[in-house]
Amino acid sequence: MFDTIVQILCQIKEDPSLRERLALETDLNNEVGLDSLQMLNFMVKVEEELKIEIDYDEFDYLHLRSIGTFIDFLNRCAPVEGAYEHAVE
């Protein structure tokens, strides 16, 4: 999951060299520097790529204090219904 998140961040920031500076401890709020539109695109892309549905009622700004914290939150998110059905086809 870490690799997928890093890949998404590099795409959104349009900076492949960002990969070298990212670690589980990297603060998504203060170190990556996503503006509001980039953050929205990041969240949508994470849902698409990981085939999960982020519960925005449970989501908190604190979940972005590190990539590791964000991954912990994502692990508690529900898979998108039908995601596995389409994978089998």
From TrEMBL:
Superkingdom of this protein's organism: Bacteria
- Where is the Carrier domain positioned along the sequence? 1-78
Q: What protein name does the entry list? A: Acyl carrier protein
Q: Which InterPro entries match?
A: PP-bd_ACP
